[in-house]
Amino acid sequence: MLNIDSLQTGIVIDHIEAGTSMRIYDLLQLEKLDCCVAVIKNARSSKYGRKDIIKIEGNVDVDLDVLGFLDPNVTVNYIENGHIAKKKTPTLPKYIKNVIKCKNPRCITTIEEGIDQVFQLCDEKTRRYRCIYCEQEYKRPVD
Ligand SMILES: [Zn+2]
């Protein structure tokens, strides 16, 4: 069991919207990591009321593009020697590759195998993305 308060080296993804941490866990493919991962749900937050937190032990890198796509409000803390060495706030990526799948049954990515699933940001305000092949808009399951 990972003692979450004594993380020496690792990453803390903080201020995750409450209830969405497992989606981030899945899309970052954290189950594939060998290191300790702790998911804390519904932690108290002075800023947002409730939040989720993910803590990952060890020298790992997380995909900030995926995080920015999923939840641009998160903060990524890089822990070294038990202290926060740096903080990063992900931004909305212009493109996301192989994170979400196009739902259009006639899209080339559905018909043919081995084609990268690429979505392009089409509206920054509403965080909307479209498939670059067929322009089908991606519908977010949460909002
Ligand atoms: Zn498509």
TrEMBL record:
**Can you tell me where the transmembrane regions are?**
none
Q: Name one GO cellular component term.
A: aspartate carbamoyltransferase complex
The chain positions of domain Aspartate carbamoyltransferase regulatory subunit N-terminal read 2-89
Biological process annotations from GO: 'de novo' pyrimidine nucleobase biosynthetic process; pyrimidine nucleotide biosynthetic process
Give the matching InterPro entries. Answer: Asp_carbamoyltransf_reg_N (IPR020545), Asp_carbamoylTrfase_reg (IPR002801), Asp_carbamoyltrfase_reg_C (IPR020542), Asp_carbatrfase_reg_C_sf (IPR036792), Asp_carbatrfase_reg_N_sf (IPR036793)
Q: List the Pfam families hit by this protein, alphabetically.
A: PyrI (PF01948), PyrI_C (PF02748)
Task: State the UniProt keywords alphabetically.
Answer: Metal-binding, Pyrimidine biosynthesis, Transferase, Zinc
| Lineage: superkingdom | Bacteria
**Which segments constitute the Aspartate carbamoyltransferase regulatory subunit C-terminal domain?**
96-140
In alphabetical order, the GO MF annotations are: metal ion binding; transferase activity
Gene3D superfamilies attached to this UniProt entry: Aspartate carbamoyltransferase regulatory subunit, C-terminal domain, Aspartate carbamoyltransferase regulatory subunit, N-terminal domain
Q: NCBIfam families of this UniProt entry?
A: PRK00893.1-3
- The protein in question is named Aspartate carbamoyltransferase regulatory subunit
Q: Can you name the source organism?
A: Caproicibacterium lactatifermentans
